[in-house]
Specification:
By secondary structure, the chain is an all-alpha fold.
Length: 572
């Protein structure tokens, strides 16, 4: 329910004795000891209670880590607390706020769905990003919605939320909650005084009790203190306190940051540097020339094939494809802030420089598109010769996202609509990450590599085959070290009667079987889910698959797996 404001007292002097109305000291002593907290204090107190409860709940749910269903349950409780707090204080969530709260819960659920380490890392980042955007949409600082935000607004919102999460809890407790308002000073048995008395008496009592127990064994036999593992108690307090601190700071940013000195004006930033036509022309003009020269060279190897590459560089086609991909990705990553920064540094009143910027930035984006095509072609050849890995899959997805971002840049910033760019940047990033969760990267990588084994076996059996024509086969040891999503596929391939891995050496297969048993069978497999809060769908399926075929894997496993197997497992 909504907390009302206190009714004003129209004639406070009429409520005091005559002497108190004349003498200020007497007035202070005679004034009632209890005052009513402000509505802001009620909101702060509700936030503190919610933060404390969420901190207590976080201890059993999250103390074993974030990789499991515990995070999803905690985030669902967090979402309920946010909805209740906003409705209770007369500030129901907007449509955008509800969307970001749902996105945070969905990506928290990703950690109980998929078992790919890198994907789970990105899911956590996506969850934190959604909570940051939720705080921004709730308090309208620096803008009220993502559609109205620029990149600088997103950075300011993230920085403000981070600062509040780190330092907001003490301010919420000691200032916003108005802890000294509403206390009955005349009562000697109020809750506050009882708690204060216990806090003082407990350590004093404990010290003297320990001394007396040590002094007299007979007294000690009658008085025994509970056997408490203070390290365990301290760990529980630290975990609960950490999450309570974080939630309190986030709630202060979301619910109270609009008032008073906390409000951050949305006025445009005054930048210390501005760019004119000469700076823009020289900078973007030279980049256009450089990118154009690079694209011309790339056309040679794209159409000239392996013979031209070998003649000019001395590298095989596969080696050439392997080199340069990440350098080209960095070119795209660095060009984005260059273009956005240049646009931000041009005064809005300088129409001539803005026109020159658009005329030079548009062909630069087009040339970058050709460079991204070259990077994609390199990655395609790389995968063709060496197979796909999870890192290469994520890199390919990143290139696709960059292509979408630069296309959106051309349709927004370069068409004088910069305010809509940030919304597309964020939305496309979440769309790509959601697509990766749906695609199941580890299972996709395992399936593709196992298919390479079948192709290699067929090629080897065909007349006149040249041992795979230099194409690398499957590496079951690499698949064995992937997450739980890949395990059922590998177990099926290793134990299949039709010898799906027939082209793979027996030593490779037995090493993969040994790795699977070490990671997923007892006791090692049990340690992957020490608590129900760590339950994960992919890990549960992996455990079931390995344990159901444990006898077959044991017969296949090597007697002694090499100690350096894991260090050497890689797709070239």
């Amino acid at each position: 329910m909504r907390h009302p404001e206190p009714e004003p007292v129209t004639n406070p002097g009429a409520q005091l004795p005559h002497d108190a109305a004349i003498d200020p000291a007497a007035a202070s002593a005679a004034r009632p000891a209890t005052t009513t907290p402000s509505s802001r204090a009620f909101v702060a107190r509700d936030a503190l209670i919610a933060a404390a409860l969420l901190g207590v709940v976080a201890d059993p749910l999250l103390r074993n880590g974030l990789q499991g269903v515990g995070l999803l349950i905690w985030m669902a409780q967090f979402a309920v607390a946010v909805v209740v707090l906003t409705r209770q204080n007369g500030r129901p969530l907007s449509r955008e706020s509800r969307i970001w709260l749902a996105v945070a819960v969905i990506f928290a659920g990703g950690l109980s769905w998929r078992d790919a380490d890198l994907l789970q890392f990105f899911d956590v980042l996506a969850m934190l990003g959604a909570l940051t955007l939720l705080a921004m949409s709730m308090n309208a600082i620096p803008v009220s919605a993502l559609a109205a935000a620029r990149i600088r607004d997103l950075l300011r919102g993230a920085l403000g939320t981070g600062i509040s999460v780190a330092s907001g809890a003490p301010v919420l407790l000691l200032r916003d909650a108005e802890p000294h308002v509403g206390q009955r000073r005349s009562s000697e048995w109020s809750i506050g005084r009882i708690a204060k008395s216990l806090a003082i008496a407990a350590p004093v009592f404990l010290v003297f009790a320990l001394l007396l127990i040590s002094a007299d064994p007979l007294f000690g036999s009658f008085v025994t203190l509970p056997d408490v593992d203070f390290e365990v108690v301290l760990s529980h307090l630290l975990i609960a306190g950490f999450f309570a601190w974080v939630v309190a700071g986030w709630l202060r940013r979301s619910l109270l940051a609009q008032s008073g000195a906390d409000a951050s004006p949305a006025a445009p930033l005054s930048l210390p540097l501005t760019l004119g036509a000469s700076e823009i022309g020289i900078t973007l003009g030279t980049l256009n020339a450089l990118f154009a020269a690079f694209v011309i060279v790339q056309m040679g190897w794209l159409f000239g094939g392996a013979a031209l590459v070998l003649e000019t560089t001395g590298l095989s086609y596969a080696e050439y494809a392997r080199r340069g991909f990440f350098e080209l990705a960095w070119v795209a990553v660095l060009l984005l802030p260059v273009l956005l920064g240049a646009h931000a540094l041009i005064p809005s009143s300088d129409a001539r420089t803005l026109r020159l910027y658009r005329r030079l930035a548009l062909p630069l984006v087009g040339l970058l598109g050709a460079i991204l095509v070259s990077a994609g072609a390199r990655m395609r050849l790389y995968i063709h010769y060496y197979g796909i890995s999870s890192d290469r899959l994520y890199a390919s997805a990143f290139i696709v996202w960059l292509a979408v971002v630069f296309a959106w840049l051309a349709f927004t910033v370069l068409r004088s609509r910069p305010r809509t760019f940030a919304a597309g940047l964020v939305a496309s990033g979440y769309a790509v990450l959601f697509a990766l969760n749906a695609l199941n990267p580890d299972a996709l990588v395992a399936r593709a590599n196992l298919a390479r084994a079948s192709v290699a076996r067929a090629d080897a059996a065909s007349p006149g085959a040249s041992a795979g024509a230099g194409v690398a086969g499957a590496d079951p040891r690499y698949i064995a070290y992937l997450g739980g999503d890949a395990v059922p596929l590998l177990v099926s391939a290793l134990t299949s009667p039709d010898a799906a891995l027939g082209a793979v050496a027996m030593t490779e297969r037995c090493a993969a079987a040994q790795i699977l048993r070490e990671r997923w069978s007892e006791p090692g497999g049990a340690n992957r889910m020490r608590s129900w809060t760590q339950w994960n769908l992919a890990r549960s399926r992996a455990l079931h698959a390995v344990r159901a075929h444990d006898a077959e894997l044991e017969r296949l496993a090597c007697p002694k797996a090499p100690a350096t197997v894991r260090a050497t497992v890689t797709l070239h």
